Amino acid sequence: MAILAAAVVVGLIASHRTEAHEPRGTSVSLTVSGAPAGRAIPSGFLGLSLEYPAVEAYAGTDPNAINPVFEQLIRNLTPGQAPNLRIGGDTTDWTWWPVPGVAKPHGIRYTIGNNFAAVTAALAHAVGARLILGVNLELDSKTDAAAEARALVAGVGADSIEALELGNEPELYGSFSFYKTASGRHVNGRPAGYDFSSYLPDFARIAKSLPDVALAGPATGAPKWIPELGKFLRAEPRVTLATLHRYPLQLCFRPAASPAYPSVAHILAPSASAGLADSVASLAGAAHSRHVALRIDEMNSVSCGGAPGVSDAFVSALWVLDAVFEMARVGVDGVNIHTYPNAPYELFTFTHEDGKWSGTVSPEYYGLLMFAQAAPAGSHLLRTSGALGNVRAWATRATDGTERVVLINDYTAQSRSVDVRIAGAHGAATLERLRAPGVHALTGVTIGGQSFATATDTGLLSGPSGTVSVEPAHGSYVVRLPPASAAMLTLGPASGA
Q1: pTM of the model
Q2: Residue 23 confidence (pLDDT) above 50
Q3: DSSP secondary structure string, 66-82?
């Protein structure tokens, strides 16, 4: 933990250099008040969502030698906290734990067993994670669901499990193929017209067969199903964690002119971040009124296929930094960013050769890392004001009094200069930049001048710090933002009033 703390702090310590001149561009002003906005950011707010096969692909297959690079990349996002790892996604309903005397059912693509449980348990213990584990609902079998759930609880350990999540995106069961017969006929998991009223008794019936542990659901991302969350929670008192899925853009079933079609302009539009959060804002209150936490436990940039130059590029880092802040604004209790091998938005990849692990980190991860630095557990968002155009701004105050201001320049071809006025602040601040060669860049991303290079065998940032000192001028801090970049001002408690 001491190594991790040093790694996080090194990106925030000011060097002896002062801020270099950038082209000033258009100047805008931001005022940060001392007033907190909303609830404190919970511990474990920023989590990861993994498909079932991703666990051993990322962590390795030896429970006694878990991939240390993967471990560190998890820790980086939740320093000093218990990370939240959701294991599920599409593969929730394609996975089973073999039942003695029962033939493998149709629709099953992945089989898990004792080694999977041992690896998952070892990973959870290594990083102190709390787990959300998917259980197959589409199979529509109390026997199979109960066997899978009992085996997971026994093999992983109840102490590491926050909840069992029954099913994944059940709104698709009646319209998407579950399996194909020998003759090539597609068979859906449920009859056509399967709707929320059909789902509720399905969930209740299968849930009764599961071990007596907390449940999560409804794991839906459908616009017509999401508003039914309150009804679902009233019907299922065992559900202590409400889970929803959100993606701002979608590749299939969308014409190129649609604002939801993948493009740089669309992912940087307010609808992809503020709009995404607003779509669940009322549901956070609905969950909290029943003393249930709400997690967006599957979220990323583009669903239903890849979008090169968007989902895998630096623009995704700018989007996710803003979008996760937006989710904190509306009061959700956590966000799990989805990743798995060969995903169009995969956060990292790993190789294991000669007993050594190495990882390649994607641009989007850097945006998550800046959020983790800017919003430690217990911090509050602060109220801001100012006409900023396409510059997004977020301010936080940590429990130790440290204040941070994050600025995101969504202008892809124009720089901006922001005059930041912070109530009660005085003295020098430190400035850390998140930048890349361009909005479409796949490599060359840096945060505070540091990076994970082309490959990392530690999971820690490396290279000389590019953090600089900014002195206030006439009561404000001037931050110049190159096109398509972000920056974070940090003022320690001694810098405030």
Answers
A1: 0.93
A2: no
A3: --HHHHHHHHHHSTTS-
